[in-house]
Amino acid sequence: MAMFFSSLSILPIRNQLRVDTFGCLIFLILFALPTNAQDDGESQECFQEDTQCVEEGQWNFAVSFGLGLRTNPLSKSSNIPLLILPEISYYQGNFFIENLDFGYRLMDTNDASVTLIATPSYDSVFFNRWDPGNLLVNLSSFGGVSSPTFDGTEQDITTQINSDELNNRKFSYLGGFEYNMKFDDNLLQLTALTDLTNTHSGKEIRFAWAHSFNSIVSSTLGLTWKDKKLSNYYYGVEPDEIIDDRGAYDAGASVSPFVRITLNNPTSDNNSWRLSLEYQKLGKQIARSPILEDDYVVTFYVGKRFGF
Amino acid sequence: MDSTKNNMGLTKIAGIILLLFYFTFFSLLSAKEVETNSSGLFLSPESCFLLKYEKSCDLVVKISWRTEEENEYCLYQNKNNSPIQCWKKSNHATVDLMINFEENVLFELRAAQTQEIVFSQILKFYRKVSNLKRRRRNPWSFY
Prior knowledge:
The complex is a heterodimer. Chain A is mainly beta. In chain A, 14% of the residues lie in helices and 43% in strands. Chain A has 7 helices and 16 strands. In chain A, strand 6 and strand 7 (95-98) form a beta hairpin. Chain A is globular. Chain A starts with a helix and ends with a strand. By secondary structure, chain B is α+β, with helices and mostly antiparallel strands. Chain B has 2 domains: 1-37; 39-127, Sandwich (Immunoglobulin-like), CATH 2.60.40.10. In chain B, a hairpin with a 7-residue loop joins strand 3 (57-77) and strand 4 (85-101). Chain B is flat and about 50 Å long. Classes of the chains: A mainly beta, B alpha+beta. At the A-B interface, strand 3, strand 6, strand 8, strand 11 and strand 12 of A face helix 1, strand 6 and strand 7 of B. Strand 3 of chain A pairs antiparallel with strand 7 of chain B, so a sheet runs across the interface.
């Protein structure tokens, strides 16, 4: 907790007060707590036939079989096939696990919730084949497997990067607060996160606005902000990582917006057909990195989800 | 360098096309939703939510239907052999039905002569159970 409030400092810069934006977000999310602090998990309505409701104290498993791919923005990397997507979840009281996410609901009503959350930084899946994010594929942000290949042409020599050095980008866990607000057919989500594993000491802010047009079709607009430390850890290039005469790359803070269309058509109690198309525009500071060749990520998936 | 510029150009064009598709598709979708003269079988309300202490749903459901062609149609409930109501030479109608139910109710509009199902709709039944938890919604996530 002290880690979060330390970033809430007011710093004198050029005779003016600069309030840390990240700290403000944490404050705003927690500000939502007192007015509904008396609400506990029981205040939310949950119905047996609602597929969004799960039984407490039981592990829930699901798997989606389908066809899909995610484009890989890394240089000389293949697109990432999406075929089998497993899901695991567990809920007990205010605590829950959703794949690689761990959370504790501090406040939860039908209209809003505040959650203490721990979630991976999915950037690492680019660089490590056996990254946990690649075993439990959470398609929550762009990601994939880095498998740079060089065919020895002249062009490759000028862009070649020491792949062994690139593999040093480690898996990291982020922790923070998540605020969800529901109104009519809309859902707003704001998550403020900071590095818990002391891997890069970076911060990340995730925002999404989802709108349901009917029971099947929904769309989402959102963005991910990564601070300089996080962006630079994954997308910066150290001098010893390049073998040609280019300079190192120092990535700054970045904002990556995305738009997504989703169709979800339930066929029975636990099964459903799903189709999703997402376009994410990578932030300039990430897109300019010499280890990337694309400044966007397109993700498409169509398949059937089976719940057990 | 030219290749990079071309790629950036293509990316921007792809982004613009996707955004145009996004707004056009959903504008049309929204327009279709408010269309009142479309064919189909419609229920209002579409579901009943039951609290823990309630045993069954008691409500008046407004059932309306509209077809492309005039014909003799009958409205059925839960595969019953006897219809709720039939209409001769009509292509639309509305009926208010008082109903008591403890599970999903299936309504079917059938052609009277052939018994072919023209439209069907389910009046959904939800019961609150205390040991259930609402799953975390995560719109930032791809799923």
